[in-house]
Structures are given as C-alpha cells and as structure tokens.
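User: Structure please.
Assistant: Input sequence and predicted structure:
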Amino acid sequence: MPPPERPRSLAYRVLVSVGPPLVSAAVVVGIWYLVSYVMLEPDRQFLVPPPHEVVDVALLDWEQLEPKLEALALTARVALTGLVIAVALGVLAAVLMSRARWLERSLYPYAVILQTVPILAIVPLIGMWFGFGYSSRTIVCVIIALFPMIANTLFGIQSVDASHHDLFTLHRASRWERLRKLELPAALPSIFTGLRTSAGLSVIGAIVGDMFFRQGDPGIGTLLDTYRQRLQSEDLYASIILASLFGVVVFALFSLVNRLAVGSWHGSGSAR
C-alpha cells in the first residue's frame, strides 16, 4: 500500500499556480525587447517601442493614462450590457428550443447564421438602423456573444441523463418542475462555459463597435484607431495592454463564479 501523499505547502501551491504565467510573461517581454532592439532597423524602432518606454510614456503619465481609463470604462460598460442581454436572450432561446423540436429546427439555423456572418459586413447596416452611438455598440456585442449562450445552454439541457428524467416522470413532475429542478441545474456547467466564451466575445464586440461607431464618448477601440492613425506607438501598445487585461479580468471573474456555483459537485468548476 503506497504511503499517503503529504500535503503540499502554501508556498509550493502559489509557485505552481503563479510561476508558469510569470515565466510566460518574461518570455514575451524578452521577445518584445528582441524585436525592438535587434530585429528592427533603427529608423523603424518607433513602430515597436520597448516595454519600458510604453510603461513610462503611456502608463505612468497620468495625463496620458486618464483618457485611456475613461475610454476603457465606457467599453466595459458596453461589453457588460451586451453580455447581460446576450445571456438573457440566449438562455431564453435555448429553453424555448428545448421545449419543442420544431422550434429548435426553426430557430437554431438562424442562430448559426448570426454566428457565421462577418460582423464587419453588417456593422454599416446596424449604424444606419440604430445610429452610431451607444446602442449600436451594444447590439454588436449582443450579436457576437449570443450564439455561445444558445449552443451551450441547449446542449446542457439536452444532455440530462435519461434515468433522471425517468425519476421525474415517476413522480409526475410538471414540465416547469422538470426544467427548474432538473434541466437548468444540470445545464449549469454548460451555461457557464458559454458565459465565459461570450464574455470574451462581448469585449471584442465592444472594441469593434468603438472603432466604427464614433458618436458620443470614445471607447478604447476608438483610441486604438486614433493612435494607429497618428503612429503613437507607445499609446497604442498601452491601450492594447489595458484592453487585454480587461478581457482577462472578465474571463477570470466568470471562471470564479463558475467555481463557486458548480465547483462543489461538477469537475468543470474544480480547482486544478
């Protein structure tokens, strides 16, 4: 009989969880310096400024950082608003399609089409129909984030074990009781998988909307396009970093919610 495994220390667990990302970040920064100082000719180094210049010029200077944070706050508000709408519509559509096969056959192909049509192709139409402000940015987020919620929620509801359905049938449960007490709880891991995917897509949609719908206050996507046109490389890279960090925070937040909601009884939420 093998000896029991000794509990690992807190320092070891922290090192295992934090060490690999830090090593990856160090490799990325090293490659960045290599490109800036070695691979680019001196007259083109302004296109890829080294990391310390990006931090010094665009992140440590409050006058340069403040408009980026304000723009990021607007983009975050658009992304979260679009995500909430996409989650509500996606779960509702999936529930309706799970209730009747003819509804699934009628609606699901259009959900697939909504996912496969390039968003840039319909952005001009959205602008003509709904204007070029906050509403259009939110609609772009909804369109991009909707399909993962529909697909994952429907998959979760339809994947409930048949023996569980038999148990509810034996107790003469109504369709509402079956949905509320069996199908939706069992579909939670799939719903949270769709939620994490839709959260990242919603951030992308908000940035794309910023680039095309310029009425009102500028979002981070608007600043990205402006800095690109003006060749303000330090500000451009800083804006990209801030937008990426926001996406990571959103993904990590919903991963934490997933772990708290289903981690105690399902493997998808357990810590690794």
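The domain at 50-269 is CATH 1.10.3720.10 (MetI-like fold).
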